[in-house]
Amino acid sequence: MSCKRLQFSRPLQRWGGRTWETAPRHLLALRDFDEAFLDRVPDAGVAFEPCAAGFWSLPPDPAPSVVVLFLHGGSYSAYAPDDPWYRALASRIAAASRVAVLSARYRLAPAHPFPAALDDARAALAAARDRAGRGGAAGLAALSGLFDLTASGRSYATRRFRGGGGDPIFRDGPDEERRSTIRDGLVYLGRVDGDGDAREDDVERVLRSLPRRRTWCCWRRAPVGDAELLETLRDGRLSPRFAPSLKRLPRSLLLVGDAEVLLDDTLALAARAARDGVAVDVAVFERMWHDWPLYRDCRAVGGGAVLEEADAAIALIAAWLRRHFVDV
Questions:
Q1: Is the per-residue pLDDT at 50 higher than 60?
Q2: How far apart are CA 296 and CA 79, in angstroms?
Q3: pLDDT in tens, 208-245
Q4: 3-state secondary structure the chain
Q5: What are the residue boundaries of the Alpha/beta hydrolase fold-3 domain, all occurrences included (predicted)?
Q6: How far is it, in rounded angstroms, from Cα 319 to Cα 86?
Q7: CA–CA gap between residue 87 and residue 192 (Å, rounded)
Q8: Peptide bond into 110 cis (omega under 30)
């Protein structure tokens, strides 16, 4: 099974190598990243209906036998489906696809460590199945996915923010950005101190064990204890990139920006899935950063300028849903 990769390019909005003074307005907005720049206005035609698993985003006359289960970001320890940027995104997917979207509310670490979020996602999936009247998940769409809690991808170094290029949300050096992801993984596991934070010695143990640092002739081997902690984070239920098999994964659409530090997470998962026989499409949006569809309105620079790549990503998800699951 081959992996189909789609490259989305907008030549007029290229910004690699430019200074911020000559960059497009939506990138100027991200120079000083803040949650105030996130899209907070849901689609006006979508209604919201609470339920035990979270809430539904309901477009007018939704498809009767297809639903979408929406799992918000935050590394299993932050945010909620009710946050306005996630509510806005779910509503836009619902409106564009004319499909009901269930935004799941899952318990967060460290108060509720792994597998609490996974168990809650499974319960929400059961609720979605009940509404759709189908037996199982038919497809997976993932946006800027975090598929490797060991942060081993090279894009942590090649795509980090540097002046006018890279991912503007991730500005620290590659090792520090890796530490941030590893901390998230350890918090999800419940390996925290009395304040609920990951222990820095654990973070350093994982970082030391990543197979990327060389002596003059060979890879540096990690101590046994460090390697064991690394393998814990590579559990396929936490880091699906390292799952023993992805053959049970349904048809998948993976969207990622080619400027974001998680680019390698998506490409590695797609390659593994394709080798395991999964029908997988990868949409790589040129010059886009982490979770760019959440920044559709870019109100930070005034004037209500619309980020066209955000609309394009939502339109792609909607077209994929309708092609494979609605209009069949």
A1: yes
A2: 19
A3: 888 754 433 344 454 545 788 999 999 999 999 999 99
A4: CCEEEEEECCHHHCCCCCCHHHCCHHHHHCCCCCHHHCCCCCCCCCEEEEECCEEEEECCCCCCCCEEEECCCCCCCCCCCCCHHHHHHHHHHHHHHCCEEEEECCCCCCCCCCCHHHHHHHHHHHHHHHHHCCCCCCEEEEECCCCCCCCCCCHHHHCECECCECECCCCCCHHHHHHHHHHHHHHHHCCECCCCCECHHHHHHHHHHCCCCECCCCECCCCHHHHHHHHHHCCCCCCHHHCCCCCCCCEEEEEEECCCCCHHHHHHHHHHHHHCCCCEEEEEECCCCCCHHHHCCCHHHCCCCCCHHHHHHHHHHHHHHHHHHHCC
A5: 68-132, 231-292
A6: 20
A7: 30
A8: yes
Residue 169 zone, left/alpha/beta (φ > 0; ψ -120 to 50; rest): alpha
Cα angle 66, 142, 249 (rounded to 5 degrees) comes to 70
Relative orientation angle of helices 200-209 and 174-189, to the nearest 10 degrees: 120
* pLDDT class of 186 with cuts at 50, 70, 90: very high
Q: E strand or H helix at 57, and its extent?
A: strand 54-58
Q: Which of 166, 165, 96 is nearest to 312 (CA)?
A: 96
93 and 318 Cβ atoms separated by less than 8 Å: yes
What is the distance between the alpha carbons of residues 198 and 169, in angstroms, rounded to a whole number? 21
pTM above 0.85, yes or no: yes
Q: What is the model's pLDDT at position 173?
A: 76
- How far, in whole angstroms, is CA 304 from its chain's centroid? 25
Q: What's the token pair of residue 130?
A: 């009940």
Residue reference for tokens 């984070």: 233
- Using DSSP's 3-state secondary structure scheme, residue 281 falls into strand
The rounded distance, in Å, linking the Cα atoms of 297 and 311 is 10
Region for 321 from its dihedrals, namely left if φ exceeds 0, alpha if ψ lies in -120 to 50, beta otherwise: alpha
